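Hey, I'm writing a tutorial for new members on how sequence and structure tokens pair up, and I'd like a real worked example in the thread rather than a made-up one. If someone can provide the structure for the chain below, I'll link this post from the tutorial.
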Amino acid sequence: MDTAVHILKKFPFFYTVSDVLLEKVGNIGIEKSYAKEECIFNEGEQPKAMGLIIEGRIKVVRHSPEGKDVIVRIIDKGQIFGEVAVFDNKPYPAAAIAMVDTRAFVLERYKLIELLNHEPQIALDIIADLGRKLRDMLDMVKNIATEHVDRRIIFTLLKMYESSGNPVLKVKRQDIAEMCGTTVETTIRITRELEKEGLISTERGGITLLNTGALTQKLQ
């Protein structure tokens, strides 16, 4: 079984952190498993912990006034979830739900804050990761507000690829539709067009990007 240090070394924002510091992080965390469709935390709950995904995938969901769930983000292996509420100590702004069976390394808030008070390097690494996410979120908001739906879908696919580093996206077209603020029918039509162009391939429960360069050119 992997040690906590070995697990933490797999996360990009810990690449430059020494083993001594990683040992300290590992000592305040615990590995947890979540079944597919299990709710990890609900929108509005007080923050208790943040997690780092070892294996699996989580969707961050907000509930609209109309009672519809909207996917805000999809978080893959090697990424953090729940960190915003942990640091501002306000209720979770959205719910987190496991999309598949998922394993995560979970850090309790009060233990993490205590550690960061003594180890600013870890805090700086996590802040840098938060900054990248904020930029991505601003790009996403601008994209949804100003771009045509086909460009929104391409942008979302490329952002997911950029985050995971894997051209095989384990995501349903319904999930893409919710992230882009459009209908499933429109998403199916556009992804079929992209498939005919040889830019992607679709299968049940997933989309594979075959030519990220050509997809990027469509946004220019």
